[in-house]
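pasting for ref
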Amino acid sequence: MASGLEASGLEARSWRMIIMIKKFALLLLILAVLASCGRSRENGQEPSPPGYPEEPPPTICTSGENGEGCETEGPSLYIPAYNEYRVILEIDPATRMVDGISSITFTNRTGVELETIVFRVYLNAFQEGFYPQPFFNEFRHRVFRGVQSYGYMNVHYAHLGNEELAFELDGTVLTLVLPEPLLPDVTIELHLQYDAYIPMIAHRIGGNDNALWFGMFLPVLAVHGENGWHTDDFHPAGAPFILEAANYSVEITTPIRYVVVGTGQRSEWTIEDTDTRNTNFEAHTARDFAFVISPYFNHAHAVTESGIDIHLYYYTDGLEIDHILEHARLSMEHFEYHVGRYPYGHITIVEADTMLDGAAFSQIVFVDTRRLLDGDLWALSHGIGVQWFASIVGTNRISEPWLTNGLIHFAQAGIFYPTPEELRTRMEREHGRIASRTDLFLSDSLDAFATHNHYSNTHRRKAKLMFYALYQRMGTEAFWGLLNQYYHLFSFGIATSEDFIRLAEEAYGDCLFLFFDEWIRAGDVPDLP
């Protein structure tokens, strides 16, 4: 690897990119406090951050760079609306080793003094012997595909500005110890240097002979709630993450024959007199950053009616490219029509090997080769739905996975079952599959599930049926109006079940406590309307 990634070379190498902070001139929508429906609600949930950043404070004069020396009504540099990551990665595909440096602009928005800063290093869930393992035993053969392979990330140093920090890396939890407490609303610059080894597995992160894919690869800031930093286990069920939106500027160096695709706007250039290529990504208000590298990529392209570009990257011959792109286009248009406009200019679909059928991240969807070959594109439309109800609107997918999963699965059902009769028939069939179960508690978090089937029946099928029942109860116009308001109010923030239920009662015009209580807190499956 290039010596420029050593700690001593951090100052010597200038960053090529400077994050431009998005300025929104949008007012934050404020919901009126609803009546309590004649009951008191316990609300132990974390408050949702605002969906849009505030304008910067006014600057009286602008002499000097960044207004130094000026009198201002507040700081000359306003507090960034989102944390920012500036990352340089060098990847050696032959050894599957990665050297990286991350520079993170972090603002303490917690309202309390912080003595530590916590990052999540999710790659370390794939170390040999890690517990809990990040997949159910029933999927071990799918993950390893015959050969057991493990990965890791080592952190070599952490700096606050030019000051070295003490830190501890315990599994997926990286804790930095600050030299003095960080006051609320203060912004600092942190630097991490690390290396990593990518396992040859079929999961969110992994590889095969055709490509390497990097989902949940970068060290990311943990979310701070009222009980402190979220350091939840990497559970085998679902998507065990709670993430804040952030801005990313990522530069990736690979051998010249490799194509790199990922989250955000992409540009690339070759390094003069070398056989390497640099690929740069600029991603604003992204829930995460994911990418894939391959020397064998083919590319195809389509455009939605609203002008969103759909890029497909694949390496397997014999795929029905037109069918895949058409399904992606219909799925994008379906979610835009029913929920709201997609805020980015493009989305990327990439062929990969995954434990199940696919995995989705901000602006990029991994789809398993098997599903692309057999034409079963449910995973593709699901990954597109993830953009709306997980990447753009964030939730706690560990303690309340039904909120994201149920909305995605019910909303995407309309793509495959577009008429009321087809949809009703499908929902009744789904209901019949789980109607006899009495152990499907939507109130259960991910740590309650020992098998994928139990998790899927609970937070996918039952949650989907609950939203179908709500759709039947509210009516078409009110239900989709509810989802549109939910989407626009909590875009780039984090919504809770309390938020959703409050909006649902407002849209319905009546109390829905008994409805949600029956579906969420009981283990059996209520009858459909």
